[in-house]
Write a structure and sequence with these properties.
Layout lengths: L5 E2 L17 E6 L5 H8 L10 E3 L5 E3 L14 E2 L2 E2 L5 E6 L13 H18 L6 E3 H4 L13 H5 L11 H7 L6 H14 L11 H16 L10 H13 L2
Parallel strand pairs: 1-4, 2-7, 2-8, 3-7
Antiparallel strand pairs: 3-4, 5-6
Helix pairs in contact: 5-8, 6-8
Length: 247
């Protein structure tokens, strides 16, 4: 596979190399800053204490910021299934986008094409399981919104980069906003746990608020047309479909 990658190295990474077999995840982010140049400066500034392995620019250019075998500082406090602090196990990919705070926009076609190339390249190189391709909000739902509901998850899944449900849109629309029972809500969150979301409530969050944030994270990823934090029949169907596919 032919892929062009430029370099602009950051000092923000752990000095000790990790083993190839430790790389099990790819985590996507958006930069969430007003300009691309500001984002690149932040990712390479020693005082910011943040970085990623790659940045995908608006024009599709792929920049390597931290070599793969070093731990970049992109995930922060995070968890998925039985793992915590996913920096240790992941490659972080930042995608240039102003994000929810600064007029969140569609990702460009060139970015989508580069995400496809880079994703396939890394999956093949490190033998990463498709179900371990995640977004920042998946692993840190109480803190993060990125890469957000405009990220091309469905498109990337067609090329083996991440998972998507196999339900027909007609069926989903039919069940959108339909109420579910309290028993179904328990089934929904059990499905989310099976998929990989951590549903253990942090002590500082009230129960309702925490479960709302988890639901929003799930919707940003798998029900991108309506992000309202409310569990309906559509969300339940999608969660059931994915729980079966991802186990």
């Amino acid at each position: 596979m032919s892929i062009r990658i430029s370099t602009n190295y950051s000092p923000n990474f752990n000095p000790k190399k990790r083993k190839v077999r430790q790389i099990k995840f790819i985590i996507f982010h958006y930069t969430g800053m007003k300009t691309e140049s500001d984002a690149l400066k932040r990712l390479t500034n020693i005082h910011s204490k943040v970085s990623s392995h790659y940045l995908v620019k608006n024009n599709g250019e792929i920049v390597n910021i931290v070599p793969d075998l070093y731990i970049a500082w992109h995930a922060g406090l995070s968890s998925w299934k039985n793992l915590e602090s996913l920096n240790k196990y992941s490659i972080g990919i930042e995608v240039s986008n102003s994000g929810h705070e600064y007029n969140y926009k569609q990702f460009s076609k060139k970015q989508n094409q580069s995400l496809k190339k880079l994703g396939q390249f890394l999956i093949k190189k490190y033998k990463i399981n498709k179900k371990n391709i995640l977004g920042h909000s998946d692993i840190a739902p109480t803190r993060k919104k990125d890469p957000g509901e405009k990220f091309p998850w469905k498109y990337l899944a067609k090329f083996g980069i991440g998972k998507w449900h196999s339900l027909l849109r007609k069926s989903l629309i039919k069940n959108r906003r339909k109420k579910i029972s309290s028993t179904d809500k328990k089934i929904f969150f059990n499905n989310l746990s099976r998929i990989g979301y951590s549903i253990k409530k942090p002590t500082k969050f009230k129960k309702d608020k925490f479960f709302n944030l988890i639901t929003v994270a799930f919707q940003r990823r798998f029900r991108q047309e309506l992000i309202n934090g409310k569990i309906d029949q559509e969300c339940l169907l999608i969660s059931q479909n994915l729980a079966k596919k991802l186990n």
